[in-house]
Specification:
This protein has six helices and 36 strands. The longest helix has 10 residues. Helix content is about 5%, strand content about 55%. About 35% of the residues are buried.
Amino acid sequence: MTKTKLTTLAIAIAASLSPVKSFADTDNVSTFEAIEVVGTRPDYKTESVSTATKMDIAPLENPRSVNSIDRKLLDDLQATSLDKALKNDASTVSTYESDGHENFYIRGFQLTTNDGYLRNGEQKYSLIQEPVEMYERIEVLKGPSGLLYGKGSPAGLVNMVTKEPEYQRRTMISQDVGSNNFSRSVVDTTGSATDDLRYRVIASKQSKDNFRHYVNGVHPTTRRDLLAIMLDYDLTDDTMLSLSYDYKTQKGHQDSGAYFDEDGNIIGDRDLILNTPWSTNEKEEESIGVKLTHHFDNDWKLTASYHKLNMVNTAKTSSIRPMKDSAQTGKYEFNTGKRDNSYDVHTGTMDLTGDFNTGSIEHKLLVGTNFVDHEYSRNSLYGGVKQAASTNPATPIYGFDPSKSGKPSSNVYSNFQTGLYVQDLITFNDYWQVLAGARADYYIKYRSKNDKRDGKGEDTEYFNVLPSAAVMFHPSADSTIYASYSQSFVPQTPISSSSDANDGMEREPELGHLYEIGYKQEFMDNSAIFETSLFQIVKENISVTDRKYRDPNNPAITKKTEQGGKQINTGIDTTITGRVTELLTVKAGAQYLIAEYEGQPKYDGKKIADVPQWTANAWANYELTDHIDLNAGVYYIGSRYGNSANDEPKKSAYTLADVGAIYRMPMDSGDELSFRAKINNVFDKEYETSGDYSGMSIGEGRNYMLSAQYEF
C-alpha cells in the first residue's frame, strides 16, 4: 500500500476553497491539520464479474469458476494477445493454428471459434489475434454456459470486456520493442467532448518476425493493425446511447509446425518452416455496435444491444506431405491451396435486470433474450497434384501456381439462433442464496447454397430447454461454499452418407453437463481471494462410427454411425488472486484433470490430445519502492499426447520462467511516465506446445520486451 503526504499545494487549494470572513480579520487565522492521504495500487482482483450471470455481482455471490484478468495484470505481463494473457489461467491451455489465430482448451474441452468468445457479453466470431490493448479485462468462464448464451462447447467462454469512454480527458501513448523485430505502438485517448458526449479512440500497429525461418533463411512477419472508436451519449439523465466501431487487419503467414517421420525423427530442424514462402494469409475484421441503457427509478435497468461483424479471410496455402524417408533425405511434397472466405455475423441482446423483495426474501432478477445470425461463405482450391520440395536451400522454390490445385469449391452456410432466458438470484438471509434459471432455445441450420441449388437436404431445426441451478452458503461475510449445475449443447446435422447404415438419421444435440462444488475465501481486507472447485463435465451424444460394420443384405453399406459416446473430464482447480501482503500482488493457479473417453471403442482408454493432467501458473509483482516494481512468472504444462490415438510418444512436460521490472518516473506535472522490461523463457527452455508428428508447434526460446508508456 502506497502512502503519500498531502502536499503544500493541496493545502493551498483547500484553503482557497474554504470560506473566508475578510482579509481584515487577522485575529481569526485558520490553521490546518496535516492530513495523510492513503492510496492503493490495483491488486489484480476484480470486484465484480458478469460473464457467468450477466449481473454485476461480487465474486462471493457467483457460484461458478470465473478467472478475471484485469488491465493492471495485462499491462504488467506486457500482454499483446489472448495467448499471453491466458497463460495466467491454469484451466486454459493454448494450442497452435497454422495461420496464426489463437485456439484454446478450457478444462480439457476445445473452445470453438464461433461460439467460444464474447465481446461485452455478446457472441463474437474470433479468427484474428485479439489486440488486448482495446480490452479492460478478460474473463474466463469455465464449463457449460448454455443458459445465457445458447449453443456452445462445454469448455466455457472467454469474455473480452472493452475499455469505455471516460469523463476525464486522458491520453496514453506507448511503444513496445522486443526480440524478433517486435514492435507495437498504441495511442489510447478518452474524455468528454461535451457535457453529454464522451469518446474513446484506440489505435495500434504491431509487427513481429517469426523466430522460425523458411528454407531460404527468411523469417516471415506478422502485422496487425487496430482502430477502435467508442462513443457514449447521455440522451437523458437515465438513458445512454453507446456506439462502437472497430477495424482490425492481420497479415501473416502459414507455419504448420515441425514434421517428423514415424520414428520421431525431425524433418530439417526445429527452426525450419517447411511451408513455402508464398504461403500467406490476410484477415480483415470490421465491427459496428450500438447499445441503449436505461435506468428506471426503482433499481431496474434495461439494456439492448446489436452488433454486426464482417470478416474476410484470404490465404494461399501449402499442405505438407512428408515421405517415409524425408527425415533422412530432406525431400518432401506439398499440395497447393487457396481460400477466400467471408463471415457475416449479426448479434443482439436485450436484458432487463432489477431487485425486488417477496417478504424478507430478496431477489435479483434477469429476464432476457438474444440472437445470433451467422453466414459463412467459402471459396477454396485444395488437393491437386503434389509438388516436390526440400530442406536443401539450393533447391529452387517455385511461386504460387493455382493450376496445381484441385477444382474450385464454394458454398454458403447459414444458421440462426435465438433464446429467451430467466434467472433469479435469491437471497434468503446472510447465509443462504440460490441462483436458478432456464432457457428456451431455438436453433435452425438452413440448407446450404449448393443443397438448395441441387434440391437436396432440408433445413434442420432444434428446440431445447436448458436449466441451470446453484446453491450458496456463506459461513462468514468473506467466504462462500457453493454447488452448481449447468448445461451446454451443440446441434448435430443428420447422418449423410449413402454407405452408412443409418443414412438420413436425425441426431440429438451433443449435450454438456457441469457438476461443480467450490469454495471461495477473501482475505487481506478483501484485497485478495482464494478459490477452489471440484468439477466434472460430461459431454454426451457423441457420434461413434463402426467402420467394421457390414450389412449382409447390402454390400454397399460399410459402416454404421450411432450416438452414445461420452467424454468425461473430472478435475480440481485452485486460484489465488490479489494483494497477499502490503507490497506483494499475485495471480496463481493450478489444475489437476483426468479426461477420459467412454463408449467410443476407437478411443476408450486413450488420453485426449494436447490436454495435460497437471498445469500450474504463478505471477507475482513486488513493490520494491514507490517507483520500482519487480515481477516474475512461472508456468508449468504437464506431459500430453499429441494425437487421439496415443500412438506417438508424449510431448515432455515443461516449466517456463519470466522475469521483469517496472519503473515509474516521478513527474511534477501529474503526468505518468513508466518503463517496463521483461525477459520471457529466461532459461531458454526447448519445448513443444501442441500437435503431433504431422505438425507440431515449437515453443519460442528466450526473448525480451521493453516498453515505455506516457500518460497525460
